[in-house]
Every structure is written in structure tokens, then in C-alpha cells.
Amino acid sequence: MVVATKFLPRTPEEIEKGVTGQQHIENMINTSLQNLGMDYVDLYIYHMWDWNTDIYDIMDGLHRIVKAGKARYIGISNCFAWQIAKANALAEKEGFAKFVSIQGHYNLIFREEEREMVPYCEEENIALTPYSALASGRLSRKPGEGDTKRAAEDTYAKFKYDATAELDAVIIDRVAELAEKHGVTMTEISLAWLLTKVASPVVGATKLHHIEGAAKAVDLELTDEELTYLEELYVPHPLA
């Protein structure tokens, strides 16, 4: 079992009070460890690029908690490839811990990470652990089928996907088609595709069968023809 947790950048209130980037990271890891009832986590993830803190302070602060044994490795979420490249170049120069994983937005209907992030991570042996693996449920059921409360109320998901819903629908239809062909769920098809691309997707679950369905995806192997069939209709999406 690998335990990972994330933390946000400093709040405006913290900045106003003079809390440094290093102090903030220390406070956040201590709070997380207390909440988890653990002495350390395997992976500590910066939730997003911090535009208000000097990159040296960030990498120094993260390195300190690795040295202290509170985290074994560090990762980052929601950034551009040039940013993680810059951060890791500084870390290498200063002897700091480097980011070993990126938790980006990546799934069958949002593949913009393939332009810069995926090739960079392949080159540098950085793990991809994407969130929104099922596009907030859009890749787990046909449009309009069994819509959930979240589907109706999640404004952030609507912001990410509604603008390209018509373009995405044809891909989702192909997921449903292959699911029927294999006698499996759409979740299994969507995750089986993603597992050919990444180290470990982050999959949300609110019910036991969500976990069971996700786990089954590791046993499903799609052919090269099926992978192409799922991918070939993708068109560029605006960044969300």
C-alpha cells in the first residue's frame, strides 16, 4: 500500500502574516500526518503550481520534510511541463529531492497532457498518476444514463467538460460499444485504456462496487486496434 496526500499553496492570509513557503509546507505535512495517524507518507503532493512562492523556497521546504523522514517522495499536480522541468533542474543543482510524479488532468476525453507532459515524463522517468480518470463519471456511463447528483451539481466538472460534450460523446459511444463487446463495464474499458498510458490513475469511489469495478480494469487487455478505435476521434480541447 502506498499512502499519498496533497496540500494547497499558502492562503492570502498566511502570506499577509509572513508565513514562509518552508513554514507552510512544514505546517501542512504535520497536520496531514496528525489527521492520518501516521509518522510519514510515501508521496507528498503539491496540489498545484504556487505562483506566489519562490521556487527555491518550495523545493527547499519539500526537501526538508523528506530529510526529516516525514515524506519519502514528492510530487506535484496541475502544472505545465516547463514548470516541473524547471523545479527538478533546480533540485538537481541544489541537491534537493526531485518531483517523482505528476498528478495531471488526463483521461480518454481530455488528452492534452500528451503534448508536453507525457513525453517529458517518459524521458525523465516521472510517474503519471492522473486525476479525473473517468472524467467525473462521463466515461463510466452513456450520456443521460443514470445521472448522479454530482453530475447535476458539480460546476467544476461542467466547466471542464460541457464545452466539448458533443465532441466527447462519439468517444464515449465507442467506450460503450467496446464494453458491450467484452461484456464489461464502461469503467473497465476507460481505465484499461488509461492503464496503458500511466503508472497509476487516481479513481474516486463512493460505493464498494466502484472500487471493485476499477480493480477489474487491471485484468482487461485491449488490442492495438481497440486502443486506436478509442483514440482516433479525439480533437484538441481548451485547457481547463
Quick overview of this protein structure:
With 240 residues, the protein is α/β, with parallel strands linked by helices. It has helices spanning 12-17, 21-36, 55-67, 81-94, 117-124, 149-153, 155-161, 165-182, 186-195, 208-216, 224-231; strands at residues 4-7, 41-46, 71-77, 99-103, 127-128.
What distinguishing features does this structure have?
240 residues, alpha/beta, 5-stranded parallel sheet, 48% helix
Give a description of the structure.
The chain has 240 residues and is of the alpha/beta class. 48% of the residues lie in helices and 10% in strands. Strand 2, helix 3 (55-67) and strand 3 form a beta-alpha-beta unit. The relative contact order is 0.10. The model has no long low-confidence stretch (mean pLDDT 91).
**Which strands sit side by side, in order, in the main sheet?**
1-2-3-4-5
Number of helical stretches of at least 4 residues:
11
Low-confidence blocks of residues: none
Order of helices and strands: EHHEHEHEHEHHHHHH
Count the strands? Answer: 5
Strand content: 5-15%
Q: Helical content, roughly?
A: 40-55%
Largest sheet descriptor: 5 strands, parallel
Query: What's the mean pLDDT score?
Result: 91
Structural class: alpha/beta
Taking Cα atoms only, what radius of gyration do you get, to the nearest Å?
Answer: 19 Å
Shape: elongated
Gap between N and C termini: 31 Å
